[in-house]
Amino acid sequence: RYKSNSALRIGEMPEPEVRDHDVLVAIHAAGLNQLDAKIRDGELKRILPYRLPLILGNDVAGDVVRVGSKVRGFKSGDEVYARPDQDRIGTFAERIAMHEADVALKPRNLTMEEAASIPLVGLTAWQVFERAQLKKGQKVLIHAGSGGVGTFAIQLAKHLGATVATTTSTENIDLVRSLGADVVVDYKKDDFAKILTGYDVVLNSLGKDTLEKSLQVLKPGGKLISISGPPDPAFAKESGLNGLLKQVMRLLSSRIRRKAKRHGVSYAFLFMRADGAQLSRITALIEAGDLRPVLDRVFPFLATNEAMDYLATGHAKGKVVVRAG
Fold first, then answer.
1. Of 232, 208, 213, 230, whose CA–CA distance to 141 is shortest?
2. Interior CA angle at 16 toward 14 and 19, to 5°?
3. Regarding beta strands 139-142 and 199-204, do their DSSP bridges make them parallel or antiparallel, or are they unpaired?
4. What are 151-188's pLDDT values in tens digits?
5. Secondary structure (3-state) at 183
């Protein structure tokens, strides 16, 4: 059942069904994300109406065990990684079946643990910058630069040729600089809205106060894209939500959309989607040395609850991963 900060429990489940276009993967490692905690706590049940009990987990790396009759892109023994489709999550397990369109070959130069840290945050950053149409020479502010999304987004924005500013705490300044951040704001000492100006894009992953203050750093025509909400009408339409939920989303985001309009900028909420083709492009950048994973800690599978507790402290630098065994 949904319960805030509750412990997950280990249980036996049947082998996943393998459909015609599915690959069945033996899981070596699974990345943890704030999304897992939000699902567990029931924060997203309006937009992700899962049937409980539910296996959590949105990042995976492992070996292909078996493929469906119509799969052509993968074979047994392939090392792969993925962010499963939102309707088929469940990587905190021994095996998972996923549509081949959501899967990519694992970067050859990464361990399973490193690979498992990439899919959700990598695709999130990719899709944010795709939505923003981030171009060479533009300026982007990435909040929480030492977090899972932040560490990846800084590197990707630099690869795209942008000037990157980020917010972080004193102890993580060296980390974000090593990833390519050009301007670093220590949020414990300074107010980013009083230092930064004329930005084209802001990637927000924090709360309401930071979201609204971010409008001040954008130039006219700039884009504020939030992965932490509030959801907007465009998201409701894309997700095929019913009329009542569309109205709820409209109300939830009305304040920030109104303020954005007054500043002459746009607001959008992004909930990343599974995409094996995009993940393959990320693989190429990783193998070329343009992007690298940032791992904080790796826990054994049986210590998944401890890993979730550690993630909840908010002190992780990069990603937290659990591994088989």
1. 213
2. 145
3. parallel
4. 999 999 999 999 999 999 999 999 999 999 999 999 99
5. strand
